[in-house]
Write a structure and sequence with these properties.
elongated; 75% helix; 5 helices; mainly alpha; 133 residues
Length: 133
């Protein structure tokens, strides 16, 4: 895996903090929450996409694809967080409540579980790969 330099690592951590702050502030109903979450998500996902795997280990490649899916789910969560501010899609109110309103929490939960799983498994696989002669 390509390692991030100090600036990229700082942006990565700052993005993670902004995502957590945006998700937390949304509980208070503040209008700034989607903006915090979106900026944090863009920073986090862009730095994570810079970490490429150039090796030939099929397991790590598969885990990276799963991680990219979770990155897309994080971006979808940011979009749905903005959509939960009001009916921006101009769909019927009942449909909006069923399919859009606060559904960002579900996509965020799925993305977080996938992130935890892939991060743990990739680090284990990289350790195994480093131990091989």
């Amino acid at each position: 895996m390509n390692q991030l330099n100090n600036w990229q690592n700082a942006i990565y951590l700052f993005g993670a903090l902004l995502m957590a702050a945006g998700a937390g502030v949304s509980l208070l109903g503040w209008g700034v929450a989607p903006y915090l979450f979106a900026v944090g998500t863009i920073a986090f996902v862009s730095m994570q996409l810079l970490q490429r795997y150039e090796g030939s280990n099929f397991i790590i490649r598969r885990l990276r694809r799963i991680m990219i899916i979770s990155d897309l789910l994080l971006l979808l969560s940011a979009l749905l967080m903005f959509a939960s501010q009001g009916n921006v899609f101009h769909i019927p109110h009942i449909t909006y409540l069923q399919y859009v309103y606060n559904k960002w929490v579900v996509t965020l939960l799925i993305a977080a579980v996938l992130q935890l799983y892939t991060t743990h498994r990739i680090s284990n696989e990289l350790e195994k790969e480093a131990k091989k002669p």
